[in-house]
Amino acid sequence: MMRHIQSMYPSEDGNREARYELLGLFETVLTELDQLKDPNKMTLGAEPNLSSNYYQNIINEAVIPEKGFGTRKTVEELVKLAEGHRFLNRHYVANATPLPNNASIVGNLLMVLLNGNNLWDVDGTAAAKTEVQITSMMSDIVGYDKQKSGGFTTWGGQGAVFQSLRLAIATACPEANQKGIPQHLYAFCSELSHFSLYKSMEAAGIGTDHLVRVKTNHDHSMDLTDLREKMKVVIENGGLPVYILATLGTTDTFGIDDLSGIKQITDEIKTTYDLPHIYIHADSAMGGMYSFFNKYHFEENPLYFENEVLEVLSHYKSRFQELWHADSLVFDFHKLGQTPYTTSLFLIKDRTALQAVDLDPQETPYVGNRGFGSYHTSYTLECSRMGSSIPIYASLIALGVEGYQEILANYIRVSLAFRQKLTEAFPNVAVTNEVAPVTTFRFYPREIRYADEISGNITEKEVREINSYNEKIAETLGRYRDQTYFGSTKKQRYVYPTDSPSPVPLYVEKFYCVSPYTTLDVLDDYIDFLKKHIHSSDLIMREN
Ligand SMILES: *Cc1c(COP(=O)(O)O)cnc(C)c1O
User: Fold this and answer.
1) pLDDT tens readout for residues 101-151
2) Could you give the 3-state DSSP secondary structure of residue 152?
3) For 134-404, CATH number?
4) What PANTHER family does its record include (predicted)?
5) What is the Cα–Cα distance from 82 to 512, expressed in whole angstroms?
6) What is the CB < 6 Å shell around ligand 1?
7) Is 449:440 a contact under the CB 8 Å cutoff?
8) CATH 3.40.640.10 placement within the chain
């Protein structure tokens, strides 16, 4: 009986038969995926019909088989899951979702095969080692002193925001961990920052009423004058600012906050009002990878980037080289870093700060704090942790600094050309963000009104009419997403129409260049796709 069960596992002794058994299963998966691939389509095979009763049927039918299928039959069942799945080839341009590179795929596999628990180095030797390695490597990239910095992989950019908020509270109010959170703490972020902080304010118990949203500039970065004003108002009403979220690369528009400006203002306010440390977390989940250009030699230009690409990259450098000012930051490798979910690295400038949230050794009786092992992450919110530092490490050494520079520069190259082709093809489109891996654009039923919208020289009704025009276009394009999947967002930025009491968000379309297969020579296909579906649909509103 157990012999049969044992045959479902990797071998103990490394025998060849068991190895080839496993290899055969992998081959089945890879072959099936390859058979479903079509370079002209985004979807693997036919799309599932996600009708309203789709999940109800699944609920009705789901049952664990009394007698197991065995491994081979199970793998045959598994590969059916790929049918209709979106594949991350060049036709996926909706969001920053990468096709994981081969090194990171094998890194992930090794992580699973070793199945170390990254909670403790005795249990997760490989993950602990690579976690320390990537923490040092990325500290060097952003200008942290790796002898002082610390870091760990965690549950996404969201996790990094939550952990940093927790650190900020524990640092500013050392009693908060025992007594609960005082009622006068406040956090600040730009109105275009990710909802991660909103959720963390709820979860940490500060409450979202204590989240102050700062206006943004036309380039989608935080308006520093408004930040200063709002911090002062909070303090003068008895509040204590404990946390500022600087976003380096807003999720939809890639706005990049001026971190050294933010640091200057917080220092100035801290001194003026004699406050405890105000924690700054750089939410670099989206943009952080661009710090790979902090040490690029722009004059010699060893990778021969075009002038207009260099210009964008050197502007990025001017912002990303300030990252070291932040108390902590994050890299979402599963966005622009080309690795599988979830591979996020939370980095902290001064590792001793983690003591503020570390568990007392008495609270962790069964792991760590033993005579063996010297790495125990009792300051993370997770207990058991996956070893996602392994796929990150794999990707970093496989691509190297130059490989990442090539990929990241190509996003910009393609984005620049896309913008040009788009505006040539459509007289009624405005590109609505600065050059970035993501291009946001907005169609107008008649003449382009973007300048009027951002200067407030328009009525609310007109803005909403243009919004619904763009929403219809997004829905039309979405129907053909098995061919090419464009993104859209309901809140690219806020505008302030003449007759509106409150700000109105703009609806825009999104082209996110994130695939290594999205190159200059395939750009016409995107434009053709847009032309075909925007003109063939009955969208162009005629004058009455
Ligand atoms: C994506 C994103 C997040 C959330 O990251 P996850 O990895 O999805 O948890 C947070 N902030 C920004 C700016 C992001 O773009």
Assistant:
1) 999 999 999 999 999 999 989 999 999 999 999 999 999 999 999 999 999
2) strand
3) 3.40.640.10
4) CYSTEINE SULFINIC ACID DECARBOXYLASE, GLUTAMATE DECARBOXYLASE-RELATED
5) 23
6) 156-158, 194, 196, 247, 251, 283, 285-286, 332, 344
7) no
8) 134-404
